[in-house]
Structure formats: C-alpha cells, structure tokens
Design goal:
Strand order of the largest sheet: 5-4-17-16-18-19-20
CATH architecture of the largest domain: 3-Layer(aba) Sandwich
Number of helices: 20
Low-confidence stretches: none
Bound molecules: 5'-O-[(S)-ethoxy(hydroxy)phosphoryl]adenosine
Number of domains: 3
Length: about 650
C-alpha cells in the first residue's frame, strides 16, 4: 500500500442543530456541556468512570478505574464485585435508584410475529430469571461454564442471557438464522455444556426449525450435556431422554428465589462470535464491570432515556447490538423495551410502523439496511400509521447514506426527531462515536463526535495523523471500559488483529475522515477501499452517490482488476419499487456519479439486481460481489450469507 491516504469525495454539508424543545429536557442539553464532560472524561478517566459506576449496584464498590499494566488487556474496576443481572433487575425492585424504573413497570413488551403480545414487568422478569438461574444450576452449570443460546427473538432469549449473567456462566448467543454447521463450530469453540433453544421460531409466517438444527449440530459436539427447549411454534421435535428438557417442564420444579452471584468486575460475561468478512469466526470476549458501565452510560446519554419512554431496538439478540441495547444497557437503566419476533415485512411492509403506533414506541434504533428496505418498499406504509409517539431515532451497523438519513428524518421522524448515528463494533462493546441528541448538531452520514472517555484519531499509513477531511485509518488511542478483553482461546489473534497495525493503539479496521468541525465520517471497512487510477476511494461514498438518485434503493460498489486503471468500479444496484432497470437508467446513473463525485469515480459497469448478498446482520458482503465482478470463483466462508440463492442469481445475470 502506498503512503497515500484514502481519498474522500463526500461533499455532504447539511447540518441539523438540536431542536430547542428536545434540548431543554435532555440529559446533556448544550454543546458546551458535552465539551466539558468530554474533556473531564479524558483528563480524569478514572474519576469520571468511577462516578458513573457508582450509579449502579456493587457488592464491593470499586476504588480503581483502569489497570492498563497488562496492555493490551485492560482491567476496569478490578477490585469491585457486582452482578449485571442484579443491576438489570433487583436494583429496580426496591426504591428506584435510577429514577426510571419500578417493580411494576414494563421491562419487556413482546410482540410475536403471529400477533401475540406479552408484557413482563420488572418484577415478573426478575422472577423468571431467578427460576431459570435455578434451572441452569440444576443442570450442573457452574460459574465460568459456557452456555450457548440459539433462539429467536422471544423473551426467553433475554431471560436465558440474564440467568447466565446472574450465576456467572458465560453465554454465547448464536443468531437463530445460522445453520447447524455454524452452531456446531461455535458450540465447540466455546466448549458449551448446555444449549438453550426452542422448537422453532416464526419468520415470515414460516417455522425456522431451531431444535432440528441443534440436533444435527449436537451429533458433533461432545461437550454438550443438556439442552433446554422452549415451546414456541409447536412443531414436533425429537427429544433425547436425559439430554433434552422442555423449558416448561424444568421451570416447574425450581424455586423462584435466587441470590445473584457476587462476581469480580473482570469475570467473563459473554463470548460473541463475529466473522468479519473473511476467515474463521472470532470469539470476542467481554467481561462484567466495564461492559456494564459502558452500556449503561451510553444507553442513558445517547438515547436520553426518560421515565415514559418505550424504547425499541430492532436488532437481533444474536448480534452485539441486541446484547448491549436490547438487553443489558436499557434494562440496567430500568427502561421499557419493545421486543419483536419477526420480519419487518410480515404480513406486510407496514409492520414496524404498526408496532410503533400500537405500543407508543418513542425511541427507534435500527440499521441502515432496514431503512433502505423501507425506502424501497415505499412511503405509503409509514404514512398509513400514526408515528407521533416517536421522539428519537437511531442507526447502527453501517455508514448510512445521506439520502437514507434524510428519508428517515423526513418520513419517520417528521423532521422533528433527532437522529443518533452510532458508530461502534462487537469489539468495542458499546457506542464509541455518536451525537448526543440534545447537544450535538447532526450531519447526515456522520457519526459525529466521540462519546465520553473515547479518543479516536484518523491516521495515515505511516501512523501520522491525517489532516481535516483527509481519509485514513480509524484508531482509538486509549482504553475504554467496555472494550473486548481478548479473542476466546486465541489471545495471539487478539494482539495481531487489533494491536499490531499501530503499536499501542486499537485499530478498528475502518476507514474514516474527520472534517473541519472535528466530526467523524466512517467510510467502511478498509478492505473495501479501491484504487482507481491512483485514487483510493472508499466504495461507500460512490454507493451514497448512487443511492442519492431517486430511482435507486440500494447500491454496492466493488473494485475489479483493470489493466489500465489498476482497479475499475463495478456497481450492483437495486431500484425502488415501480422503477425499471433500463439501459437509459444505467446511462443516467453513470452520468450522475460523474456529476456528484467526478469522472474518475464513474463505474465501468452497472449491474441491476433484485437483492444484494448480505450477512445475516444486514451488511453487504462486498467480498462475494468482488469475486462475482471479477468473474472468478466465489470462495471462502459463506456461513454468514443470509440468502445463498442471491449469489446464484447474480452469477446467472453474468451471462
Ligand atoms: C460498521 C455493530 C458507519 C463499521 C455495532 C464497524 C458503522 C462495523 C456504524 C462493526 C456507523 C457500525 N457508521 N459504520 N454508525 N456502525 N459500523 O461488529 O464498519 O456488527 O467496524 O457491530 O460496522 O460491526 P459489528
């Protein structure tokens, strides 16, 4: 790679200051207040974080903040003992410490895909978690043992996670969309003793046969002693006597009393496998105290949680967003959380808006990929519902194209709701860069500024700091409480992947630029950078230009080898409902990119497609498209690909 940095071609210049009425009641209501808190968090990180930590319950209060003596392995609050499930549940049963919760406040509002609704108050959720903690104990699960959770989006998935946290077992949640092989590999890597699953999960009116997949996986997982199977869909399942137990049976025979284990702050909390785009999945390990404080603080300040909020994060519990912002962060704050089981377009593309209307959702946190799907399905679905309960919108998971951001603001937020575009990773545990909705003016497509305690920089290849608007590599240059502690079973990989590119700095793997106001613009994974005739471009920006065209719903741009230019750009484009993928449109789009960015960025080829290959969390798999574009064979790990038929279709279109 040359010394040259990544060229940034985005020219977004719209700015939206926080609305006065929102700012008035917000936890942080001015830019100046943010600046002061942020400065203090960097000048005295131990003091800052210990103060936040004290808002939570500790059996033994920590006196220490960061211990970095074992770098790159951080310890936070190391002399404290606590329990995250206690903080999510028991703490809200007494006189409310947070001012948000109470025993009879709804903790979870669950809506199943078939339409069934179940509400669990904090008292009820506490009771169910205590019972399941006793079930795990009865099955021989001890502190430090691993438990795999392979479920759909049902309350019991959250109950199982909290029960693990309560007894000090380490959970590894495996996304319910994974096939048997992926389950087997993760269960074996984590050496899980128990697998918690369900007969099946509802998805677009169909049953996903979770237990059947577990049965196939368990043929090759020698360490598993027991499974617990929740009845959800009622489809027939095979039950192996002695090994498999129905949830409703085992839960009957246990007490509802359970005392939360007093755990060291550095006790492991969970392992979550993240595949990135290539290679064997990495088991990202998070521990208790720092993760608790990080998710608590970010939920509180970024979502600006207030007592009457109904908060909805649409992520799956199988991803880190579901861990940090469905389960732990919001519950530690005593918030009311919506949980929806199924697909956004079942029975029709208006489902999300109907849920918001019927349950009075006030905060919506979703992903750019979902937003682009809503744009594609058409405005008439959100327009048909009363969305006036919403007061705050959020996104996570990918760079959001400015046009999708504008649509979100206009059609969903009615030009009234602030948008928090939150940048973070499985590895960071909690949000790292984000606007605070009452304090920070937003710019469409920018994740804005670092959260408290976070210091990020954009570097050139040689490690010097990039200038304003100069694209480069995004690093974090000091430790933060919720950072990952290691890769489970592969400490060397932890050091190599994150700490060797720039010694002493955490390398995110993302490209970014920082503008003249100090705002960060993440340009995607650096693996997605292409070099066209000497210009190193983040493909996300070319995609943004394409999506800005009124006919385009979604675009993915990749490079393919080109004798003349080094690399040439190939764009895969899906059009909005009602638009036709014609030759004329192709020509218009090429011209459009040349107009928006410059001739050098004009793709060599545009291919229309119905769908793009995505990971199960909605990230476009550019690696696969790159292989399709270069006409080569598609190789490598595809276990995260959501819909295998997409690839076949793309190749068939190839002529
Ligand atoms: C990308 C999800 C731009 C980024 C929490 C990161 C984003 C990766 C944003 C982590 C955002 C996430 N703007 N890019 N707001 N949020 N990303 O581990 O490339 O599933 O490194 O964690 O998603 O994905 P992960």
């Amino acid at each position: 790679m040359s010394q040259a940095s990544i060229e940034s071609v985005s020219r977004e210049s719209r700015v939206f200051p926080p609305q006065a009425d929102f700012a008035r009641d917000a936890r942080v209501g001015t830019r100046q207040a943010y600046d002061e808190m942020h400065r203090r968090s960097l000048e005295d990180p131990d003091g800052f974080w210990l103060e936040l930590a004290r808002e939570l319950h500790w059996f033994r209060a920590p006196t220490q903040g960061l211990d970095w003596s074992g770098a790159p392995h951080a310890k936070w609050f190391a002399d404290g003992t606590t329990n995250l499930a206690y903080n999510c549940l028991d703490r809200h049963l007494g006189p409310s410490a947070s001012g948000l919760a109470g025993p009879n406040k709804a903790a979870l509002i669950f809506e199943g895909e078939p339409g069934d609704v179940q509400v669990l108050t904090y008292r009820q959720l506490h009771r169910e978690v205590c019972r399941f903690s006793n079930v795990l104990g009865k099955l021989g699960v001890e502190k430090g043992d691993r438990v795999a959770i392979y479920m759909g989006m049902v309350p019991e998935a959250v109950i199982a996670m909290l029960a693990c946290a309560r007894i000090g077992a380490v959970h590894t949640v495996i996304f319910g969309g994974f096939a048997a092989e992926a389950v087997r590999d993760r269960v074996n890597d984590a050496q899980a003793k128990v697998v918690v699953t369900q007969d099946g999960a509802w998805r677009r009116g169909q049953v996903v046969p979770l237990k059947e997949n577990v049965d196939r996986a368990l043929a090759e997982t020698p360490g598993v002693r027991h499974t617990v199977v929740l009845r959800r869909t009622g489809n027939p399942v095979a039950m192996e006597p002695g090994r498999d137990h129905f949830w409703h049976d085992v839960i009957e025979s246990v007490s509802a009393k359970h005392e939360a284990a007093q755990l060291d702050a550095e006790h492991p909390l969970f392992i979550l496998y993240t595949s990135g785009t290539t290679g064997k999945p990495k088991g990202v390990l998070h521990t208790t105290g720092g993760y608790m404080v990080g998710t608590y603080a970010t939920s509180r300040y970024v979502f600006d949680l207030q007592p009457n909020d109904t908060y909805w994060c649409t992520a799956d519990v199988g991803w880190v967003t579901g861990h940090s912002y469905i389960a732990y962060g919001p519950l530690a704050n005593g918030a009311t959380c919506m949980l929806y089981e199924g697909a956004p377009n079942h029975p029709d593309p208006g489902r999300f808006w109907s849920i918001i209307e019927r349950h009075g959702v006030s905060i919506l946190y979703t992903a750019p990929t979902a937003i682009r799907a809503f744009v594609k399905w058409g405005d008439r679905y959100p327009m048909a519902h009363d969305l006036s309960s919403l007061r705050l919108l959020g996104t996570v998971g990918e760079p959001i194209n400015p046009e999708a951001w504008m649509w979100y603001r206009r059609v969903i937020g009615n030009e009234r709701c602030p948008i928090v575009d939150t940048w973070w990773q499985t590895e960071t545990g909690a949000m790292m860069m984000t606007p605070l909705p009452g304090a920070i003016a937003t710019k469409p497509g920018s994740c804005c500024v670092p959260f408290f305690g976070v210091s990020a920089k954009v570097l050139r290849e040689d490690g010097t700091e990039a200038g304003p608007n100069e694209g480069g590599l995004l690093v974090v240059d000091r430790p933060w409480p919720s950072m990952m502690r290691t890769v489970w079973g592969d400490d060397q990989r932890f050091a190599d992947t994150y700490w060797s590119r720039f010694p002493g700095l955490y390398f995110t793997g993302d490209g970014a630029r920082r503008d003249e106001d100090g705002y960060f613009w993440v340009m995607g994974r650096v693996d997605d950078v292409v070099n066209v005739a000497g210009h190193r471009l983040g493909t996300a920006e070319v995609e943004s230009a394409l999506v800005a065209h009124r006919s385009v719903a979604e675009a993915a741009v990749v490079g393919r080898p080109d004798a003349l230019k080094g690399q040439a750009l190939v764009a895969f484009v899906t059009v909005k409902a009602g638009e036709l993928p014609t030759k004329e449109l192709k020509a218009l789009l090429l011209e459009h990119v040349a107009q928006e960015i410059g001739k050098f960025a004009r793709p060599d080829d545009i291919r229309f497609t119905d769908t793009l290959p995505k990971t199960r969390s909605g990230k476009i798999m550019r690696r696969l498209l790159k292989e399709v574009a270069s006409g080569g064979e598609v190789k490598g790990d595809m276990t995260t690909l959501e819909d295998l038929s997409v690839l076949a279709k793309l190749r068939a279109d190839d002529e």
